[in-house]
Write a structure and sequence with these properties.
The chain has 126 residues and is of the alpha/beta class. It is 43% helix and 18% strand.
Length: 126
């Protein structure tokens, strides 16, 4: 799959920075818009026609968690076509199964190693 316009929804600023540095090293033409708040991301998606090719979504966030965001976006005719890749520290089989049942395109456990993250992004982006 070729993704060039990405969105990352993650409330951890450090995780956002690491993701964006890795992305810049593996896909120079790709762009990423970042959100720390899933509620704001959903509001902005509802008010645009310029959709990302894919959304990377953390699960553990305040206000609106990743599963709630996933449910809301998949109910929306205008937005439900956007692939959602869960990008979380969780690796529990039940969590993976639930998010896939809710409509997640894929589930990636955040790697603890920068080179592994680059490899994952390279495979998804290029």
């Amino acid at each position: 799959m070729l993704y060039r316009n990405l969105m990352l929804i993650d409330d951890d600023d450090e995780d956002q920075e690491i993701f964006n540095v890795a992305l810049s090293e593996v896909a120079r033409l790709a762009t990423c818009i970042n959100y720390s708040d899933a509620t704001k991301a959903l509001r902005d998606l509802n008010s645009t026609t310029d959709f990302p090719d894919v959304i990377f979504l953390d699960l553990n966030m305040p206000i609106m968690n990743g599963q709630q965001f996933l449910v809301e976006i998949k109910k929306n005719k205008k937005l439900k076509h956007i692939p959602i890749i869960i990008f979380s520290t969780s690796s529990h089989a039940a969590t993976i199964q639930i998010t896939k049942l809710l409509g997640a395109h894929d589930f990636i456990t955040k790697p603890g190693d920068f080179e592994k993250l680059k490899k994952i992004l390279r495979e998804l982006i290029n």
